[in-house]
Fold this sequence. Notes:
Pfam families: Lactamase_B (PF00753). The chain is about 20% helix and about 30% strand. The protein is α/β, with parallel strands linked by helices. The termini are far apart.
Amino acid sequence: MLNVKVYSLGPVQTNCYIVSNKQKDCIIFDPGEESARIIKEIRKNQYKPLAIFLTHTHFDHIGAVDALRELYNLPLYVHEKEVNWLNDPMKNGSGKYAELPNYIVNLPDKEHIIRQEQVIEIGSFKFNAVFTPGHSPGSISYIFEDDGFAIVGDTLFERSIGRTDLIGGSLEVLLKSIHEKLLTLPENTIIYPGHGSYTTPEEEMEMNPFLNGF
Length: 214
């Protein structure tokens, strides 16, 4: 059974997830900020990081990528539609806020560009990369079927949905992604969002006002 730890980081409290196994191997999802805090947790728990995965590349999900990758020599997995967002502050959103630094992630040549939905296997970890665009064109949800949870970024929240007024956003596309890719999961699947508390497909089908009438 996998262990999931969540850390709310940075100026907008973005959820970073560290998923680990019994051997202390781990995968890091959306390290948005506060690299020192993430590194402290990795050391405290004696984790052995294997990779970084991004649900999408908005600034609040990428801020600690370079620091972690440099320290642990980690591969980075990102959707092909948002590769060039990593070093473009206007596309990743940081350039719109004067109080923020320009968030730039350097992408080495040998990175892992996710071009199609696929099963991903790293060490003993096995999960599905499923495309859930709408909040951004390259949004990905990572589905751990055997362990009953999904890391969905800013696609679906507890009683809410991702915003669609940013570059490449679309309400119609987002709702289609939610209904076809997330609400079709087993009803008790734990949905881990990019912000806030976890939820389940069952709860959101019954209680989410943004999904009624779709």
